[in-house]
Design brief:
This protein is an alpha/beta fold. The protein is built from 30 helices and 28 strands. The protein is 48% helix and 22% strand. The structure holds ligand C2E and calcium ion (2 copies). The site of one calcium ion (CA) has 4 residues, from loops.
Amino acid sequence: MQSFNPFYNQNFLKLIIQLSTLCFLLSWPQLSLIAAETITSDKISSSQKTNRTQELEARLTPNEKEWLKKNQNLKVAVKSGWMPIEFKLESEDHRGLSIDYLTRLADILHINFTITNYVDDISPEDADIISGVSNKNLKNPNFRLVNQPFLVFPLAIYTNKNIEKQSKIKSLEQLNNARVAIFKHGLIGQKVSENYPKIKLVYVDLADEAFEKLRAGTVEAYIGNEMVVDYHIAFNRLKFTEKSGLTPFSSEVSMAVRSDQPELASILEKGLAVIEPDSEELLEKWKVTDTKNYYFLNAALGLISIILILGIVRFYRFKVTIKKKEAESQQLIWYQANFDYLTKLANRHLLHNRLEQALGKASRTNLLVGLLYIDLDNFKRVNDQSGHSIGDKLLVDAADRISGCVRSSDTTARIGGDEFMVILTELKDIYSLENSCQKILTELEKPFSIDNHIFFISASIGVTLYPDDSQSSEALLLYADQAMYEAKKLGRNRYQFFTQSMQADSSKRLSIANDLRSAIHNGEFVVYYQPIINLKDLSITKAEALIRWDHPTKGFISPLDFISIAEETGLIDSLGQWVLQQALKDLSIIRNHLGTDFQLSINVSPYQFHHPENLLSWMRNIETQGIPGGCISLEITEGLLLEASNTVLDTLSAVRDAGIELAIDDFGTGYSALAYLKKFDINYIKIDKSFIQNLTSDNHDAVLCEAIIHMAQKLNIKIIAEGIETVNQKDFLNEFRCDYGQGYLFARPGPVEQLLKLLEAPDRHF
Ligand code: C2E
Ligand code: CA
Ligand code: CA
């Protein structure tokens, strides 16, 4: 061994400098995690151990002691991506809070635990214990929960501290009517929505996704497990966010054991009770220390430094340990900050870095760089209908397929729920880029087989090119997103190159989104009505409500230009509610005027069914006003039924119970499956105007139209044909015995006064 004399060794000065650097680093709050790891001993002190062992001894029954003797080696199933509860780096051992608890249990029970990787349906042959079950959410019938949870953390509120209004949010009450991100696995969302129904929950499946939404301002807060989220924030150095308050709710972690081993359940319960007094100490190691702790830490470190200068050899060893732990923690930080735990792909952060690198290199070599933004079509449906664990497996499979389509030198990243990006480097021409896109589309179109089920999805890809579209990485990321949006609009399962007109389109959308916010308050909207004609006798007993926006500087803006924006920003909630209320007022006027029943048909967005509080309270309003439910029909799209969650199904049945009728809008443009409509008790189908406008004798659309009408008649569903502009079209539809028609031939949409005049006119010649 090399001797070490502080006063003669020339490295002494260097060492002191390193020590001060270390002290400086430790005074950095984000890095205090490292400090916490180094000063907290992993090992239980021997006197503590004897005490605990004796206490446990006294509690165990002879039977349980016997069982322990026979079962010295137990297998524990542990998760790999749940920081800081239990997690694992690529080639290292599992670690985290659960592991520390297990280590201590092993110490006092005198047994060994072998760790295996957790899967949802793990079999009892592969594990005796499951180390961490969140919120009693155990679905595996072969295991039962140990009675008491061993970890309980408060759920905290995180906000964007750059937005002044948000940083004042201290409690859930202040979040009524606000959009709040919440982790979709587990029961947190349920607890919040039961107790605070006015909070609009936005489900996310990655913490990254929640923080992205917070940063962008599309949610006002994020509710999460304090321990886990604090850790995430510290590791990812998210400076824009802060914990602004706590909720009355908590999140629990329990262990579970094989159902056929009741002794083990009781032993663990007793063991956990015995080490309960150590929990403070165990938790401390994983807590993100706040500034106060850091002062204490720094003072302690100062003291340690003095002691060390007196006994420099010990200090040297200490420094080596610190270095080692620091290196480990750095690696951990690096992994967390750069990779997605589910798919093991790069995350948004690493993608940005790699893109910068790629652009730098391309500018020297004069080669092209392609950037793809891939969004899976219909993924939400799989997730909602088959559960998140299947959804997650599909994402992992999709991630593998995407990265399999590109070279290993290219970067594939997952940047949100079902959104991926790929950087294709060293491209000589755009043909290879198109090739890669086509390959990805083909791969993702193939069936996914997961847990004995087959799923079909597809993808929409936006493509942008360096240096043609832009030289800046920020712009390229934005453009790829805009091109993807265009690919979705053009019918999905396709790729779309960015064009400058998309950028213009996007700034127009942005300005509309801004103006929309104030337009309701400023009274800039009107509801127009277009009569729906009974084709047999030309009587008018129905009309469709269509919103109009009279913008103070831009004039009339078509709903086609703002409804989708209102839907994306969540503004559709208040906009849709305004239309419902206005239509109800106008309906009273029409009823008073006519003295008979009249039906108004109102367009309702899927969002209003997914977040139905406003819709439900409006329905109660109809009832109190004594208006029969049958005087209202709601126009919905097929997509809503295909993606029907429990909330949607409940809302649909509440609509039916109120006697309100339902119409399927734009029929023929989507899936057009008739038979299942019966299941949802649909009253009307509105055939899309694109069909009606192509009607000529014997063409494809005419055949389809006739077939739809025949089928609907059999199912006792009435047909409304939209967009009738010519007498010819009307005659065709009459021939097919279509029930109702709507279109410019009869009347254009107009204010309620125009509808009243039309209803008065005795003779109608269309
Ligand atoms: P939609 O529900 O399919 O409404 C029918 C559209 O066809 C209306 O366009 C109407 O003005 C137009 N139209 C009616 N007859 C004819 C015709 O003979 N020829 C042609 N070419 N078009 C005809 P509008 O008012 O521009 O509305 C566009 C879309 O905006 C609507 O399509 C609907 O999806 C949405 N929308 C309108 N009002 C609301 C609303 O209050 N809430 C929601 N969620 N969506 C709305
Ligand atoms: Ca409609
Ligand atoms: Ca329509």
